[in-house]
Design a protein that fits this description.
There is one protein chain. It is globular, with a radius of gyration of 20 Å. A hairpin with a 7-residue loop joins strand 7 and strand 8. Helices cover 40% and strands 11% of the residues. Helix 6 runs parallel beside helix 11 and helix 8 packs across helix 11. The model has no long low-confidence stretch (mean pLDDT 93). The chain folds into 2 domains: 108 residues, 2-Layer Sandwich (Phosphorylase Kinase, domain 1); 220 residues, Alpha-Beta Complex (Aminoglycoside 3'-phosphotransferase, Chain: A, domain 2). It is built from 12 helices and 9 strands. With 354 residues, the chain is of the alpha+beta class. The strands form 3 sheets. Strands 1-2-3-5-4 form a 5-stranded antiparallel sheet, with helices on both faces. The chain has a two-stranded antiparallel sheet with strand order 6-9. A two-stranded antiparallel ribbon has the order 7-8.
């Protein structure tokens, strides 16, 4: 992937020699001889959760992922789970990188980590990163959402992922779990969310289905094909993937989908080019997804999924803001997350009251 890299931040540095030695002994068959010597290491500055590095050897380049420092939510940043899901998906969903190695021994660099192949192509960030006219951008938009539809139709049993989830009650567990996470990440400037969490608790529907959900499906978590950039070459960041409700996954994805008629703060908070000329509106995406999957959802029913998506995004932002506010990270890119939580709180209230 041709994403920008930077020098490794001091707080995110690790023992490169220890990783190199470990990979020479433990990498997957076929990779041990290719990963000779000590790689040059660069860091990907995008993303706000797990840390991602580019390891460049003489003839190969691979990607290393590991958790951030500081306090973490229980069950979050599970490197083994992220590695296991992608390895299992590869035979039935080709848009995952090849897994190279997984290390669960904290003694190597102080945390678990895994290594995967580098997917060639462009990762859209605030801008597309490729020259497309509005018609081509609309084609890319359709292909992007088609991949989510494809993911939601993966045969869980064939992939060996049917035991990944916890069965019925996914919506209820999500509402309860994210409400707890918000409380655990409380800072002095956090507003009173009780009316919103109460509304979500009262309005929550039953699960509509159980399928593989990515839970962080965004334009800046995919790689565009270098040969045909209206098509996807890879899907990244499987940290929150599980078996769950597909409409909850769609609601989570659309919480990041900023469009031109959104308020000024939300547009400035944008991390992906969802407002590029040719991209669809959130309403168009919901209609398209419903048509492709046959899962009809009314505007009134959709209100719950939209509010939950915004609420979950606010909790994710608050967890990052918590680490920044407590000095567990000095990354200044996280300074905007506190105000973003307040903006999302107001957006939730507007949708609840609509």
């Amino acid at each position: 992937m041709s994403d920008r890299t930077t020098d490794v931040r001091d707080e995110d540095a690790f023992d490169v020699g220890a990783v190199a030695a470990w990979l020479r002994e433990h990498a997957a068959e076929g990779w041990r001889d290719r990963l000779r010597g000590t790689p040059e290491v660069r860091q990907f500055p995008g993303g706000a959760s797990n840390l991602t590095y580019l390891l460049t050897y003489e003839h190969d380049a691979v990607i290393l992922r590991r958790p951030p420092g500081g306090a973490k939510a229980r069950g979050a940043h599970d490197m083994g789970r992220e590695h296991r899901i992608q390895a299992a998906l590869a035979p039935v969903f080709p848009l995952v990188p090849e897994m190279v190695a997984h290390c669960d021994d904290d003694a190597v660099i102080g945390s678990p980590f895994y290594v995967m192949t580098r997917v060639e192509g462009v990762i859209p960030r605030r801008e597309l990163g490729v020259d497309l006219d509005p018609r081509q951008t609309a084609t890319l938009c359709g292909n992007f959402w088609d991949v989510l539809v494809q993911l939601h139709s993966v045969d869980l049993e064939a992939a060996g992922l049917d035991t990944l989830g916890r069965g019925e009650g996914y919506v209820a567990r999500q509402v309860s779990g994210w409400t707890t996470r918000l409380g655990n990440a409380r800072t002095d400037d956090l507003g009173d969310w009780s009316d919103i969490t109460g509304w979500l608790d009262e309005q929550q529907p039953a699960d509509v289905a159980g399928c593989l959900v990515h839970n962080d499906f965004r334009l800046d978590n995919v790689v565009l094909s270098p040969e045909d950039p209206v098509r996807l070459a890879g899907v990244l960041d499987w940290e929150m993937a599980t078996v769950g409700d597909p409409l909850m996954d769609l609601g989570g994805s659309l919480s990041y989908w900023v469009q031109e008629d959104d308020d000024d703060f939300f547009r400035r908070f944008r991390r992906q080019p969802s407002n590029a000329p040719g991209m669809w509106s959130r309403e168009q995406v919901v209609d398209y997804y419903s048509e492709r999957t046959g899962r009809t959802v009314t505007a009134e029913q959709w209100r719950f999924y939209e509010v939950f998506g915004l609420f979950r995004l606010a909790v994710i932002a608050q967890q990052i803001w918590y680490r920044y506010a407590l000095g567990q990270t000095t990354n200044e890119a996280y300074a905007v997350f506190g105000p973003a939580v307040g903006n999302l709180e107001q957006r939730c209230r507007r949708v609840v009251g609509a």
